[in-house]
Design goal:
It is a single chain. It contains six helices and ten strands; from the N terminus they run αβββαβαβαβββαββα. With about 190 residues, the protein is α+β, with helices and mostly antiparallel strands. Helix 3 (about 65-80) links the parallel strand 4 (about 55-60) and strand 5. The strands form three sheets. A five-stranded mixed β-sheet has the order 6-5-4-9-10. The protein has a three-stranded antiparallel β-sheet with strand order 1-7-8. It has one domain (about 20-185): 3-Layer(aba) Sandwich (Glutaredoxin).
């Protein structure tokens, strides 16, 4: 009976306890090293210092990824002009199966079928996720931390490195673009 009383008390007091705040996570990944990538490595933390980041996990054989890239490209300039900018980064999701050359051919240049005018990263399956505050390596990889995402997956990361929104559609649509913009406005 005493245990029951303790459980009931904990149930009622649970609303008085502050929720645990999620700690932000960041990564530094190799890029295609194009002008659009702004260097050989992309630092999420560095980019978050300028504003929120929308991540797009891509695959060369993913039709939805190509359509999302094209749709996001039509919004990219407008989003980069907002204050703070809504930045984009594409993350190659299948490094074991798709080469850097494959990614570059499909997404890497203005002549590509699905040109990407924002950074494209090329992680390995082992690249670690890091703590936001001091960039200490953690035991999870980038892919593990983000839940082994399929493609395409979009995630909006706030300026503290915390995932605030995740897509649920394979093909782009105006409703999801509106969701991205609403979530961005809620962050700033």
């Amino acid at each position: 009976m005493r245990i029951f009383g303790v459980l009931v008390a904990l149930l009622f007091l649970s609303g008085c306890i502050d929720p645990v705040t999620e700690e932000g996570r960041v990564f530094t990944l190799q890029t295609l090293d194009r002008v659009e990538d702004a260097g050989a490595n992309y630092s999420l933390k560095e980019n978050l210092s300028e504003g929120p980041v929308l991540i797009l996990f891509i695959g060369v054989g993913c039709i939805g990824c190509k359509e999302w890239t094209d749709e996001l490209r039509s919004n990219h300039q407008e989003w980069m002009e907002m204050e703070p900018p809504l930045q984009l980064v594409s993350i190659e999701r299948y490094p074991s199966f798709e080469s850097q050359e494959d990614v570059a051919l499909e997404f890497g240049s203005p002549e590509s079928n699905h040109y990407t005018p924002w950074p494209i990263t090329l992680p390995s399956d082992e690249d670690p996720i890091r703590k936001y505050d001091d960039e200490t390596k953690l035991s999870s990889t980038v892919f593990e931390y983000y839940g082994m995402p399929g493609t395409p997956t979009l995630m909006l990361i706030d300026e503290d490195g915390v995932t605030q929104w995740k897509s649920s559609t394979y093909y782009p649509d105006s409703e999801t673009i509106s969701e991205i913009e609403t979530q961005y406005k809620d962050l700033i």
